[in-house]
Amino acid sequence: MAYVLDPAASVTHEVRCVAIDRVDEAIDILANLGAEDDIEHDVHEVRKRCKEARALARLVRSSLGDEFGVFNGLVRDAADELASIRDAHAILATFDNLRMSGSNAAEDELDGVRAAQAAAADEATHGVHGLDPRIGRARDLLRRSRDSIDRWDVPDEFDILRQGVEQTYERGLRSLQRARHKPTDDRMHEWRKSVKTLWYQLRLLERAAPSVLEAMIERLDGLAEALGDDHDLAVLVGRLTRHPRRFGDKRQVKRAIRLARAQQDDLRRRAFRLGATVYAETPASFAARIEAYWTCTIELGPELVTAGIAELARDERREATPPDAAGSTSVLERERKFLVAHTPELPDGGTVLRQGYLAIDKTVSVRVRDAANEGCTLTIKAGRGAVRTELEWPISDEQFAAAWEHTRGRRIHKTRYRLPLASHVVELDVFHDDLDGLMFAEVEFESDHALETFEPPPWFGSEVTDDVAYTNASLAMNGLAAGRPDLADTPPVREPSSRASQ
Length: 502
What we know:
- By secondary structure, the chain is an alpha+beta fold.
- The chain has 2 domains: 11-300, Alpha solenoid (CHAD domain); 329-487, Hypothetical Protein Pfu-838710-001 (Beta Barrel), CATH 2.40.320.
- It has helices at residues 11-31, 39-59, 61-64, 66-81, 83-100, 104-109, 111-125, 133-149, 159-181, 185-205, 210-242, 250-278, 283-300, 309-319, 397-404, 448-453, 472-478; strands at 329-340, 351-361, 364-370, 376-382, 387-395, 411-421, 424-431, 439-444, 460-463.
- The chain has an 8-stranded antiparallel beta barrel with strand order 1-5-4-3-2-6-7-8.
């Protein structure tokens, strides 16, 4: 079930269904915890659903009485059980971004600090599995919270939602004022939690006025991300200050602290300015505006696409497009694939890809891919060799997460680098996890002639375009068969030191 309330439906029914759905999804993920390389992602998904459930409960808090404290405490404690597994990786990713924001020299100077934090991140997830006591405790707490939802007595009226959003907005406004007066790490963190809760709650109410609320939700998301990075930097500084000997020599530690504090100053300057816009209203007027949107939707129905006659006619023609073409790209993919004989110099800023296969049947595969800032996609590929059919659709993060759960045992992780080569672009894929050490160089072509006349550069190795074992679908299913002679001479990967978010 989507994390959104339907104004046309019963408030009582919608609140209860969304709450149950969030908690049940979290329990299911913990019950089917994946391999070690997926632990961080799975834990993140559980914690996200816990935050969604708590924000919903806070939205209807005034109707729950003592049940709010029971439910909120159970879900909070469940998320806290998993915090140590997730937080170390989040801080490492933030530190990598911090290093990339400075000079190359700064990156080299901080190698010791980075290595220590990476070790802490690896230790946090190493050996974690479904029988880990933290996983078991979190699952038990969530089951108890699931039972408590049955005791919720939420009235079927918007007034209860209005009270909740007004209280959340007021808490955020008050936290912003305190943080601006004295921007300590603790005060910034309190403001962050209020911003995050408001973001979740407006997502729940988005259908009341998508044309207005979508933009505000996007602004709140950016604000929460900035404040989240600020918090992770604060935690990093605390660790460096308390245990400097774990993170290299004194010079490196001081350098890292200075960079972190400077980055915090910039993040806070930007956050305070956006916060002034977000919290420009009184809590009562903000809540009244949301209530007016909700009432309009109940009385007049959902918002309709509005434009001139010509644009509306184009929209109607687009809506009449067959489902297999709407929103997709349908092309003949012309591509040749090579192993790598000599590793080229890799640029900074490769794209980390996670892709999993929903179905693989001989020459046809259906996959989902998360390409970080480039977004998520659903792709169907059919055929073999250099020329294949490819259908691709953009999907949301939520749709990717739902599909990802069904790709266990058929996943690959890699970093993609794009290198210019004459009139072409080489996509160099560096694989991770069980395929660590494998690299492909792939080149796409506009025409059959260009494909056939392409001359590979000296650093390309053996061509494997027609080798089924080297398709991503096969690698996801079977790994790389042992004893492949064509891989024996593949050189080791020398990636940039600033690879982030892996």
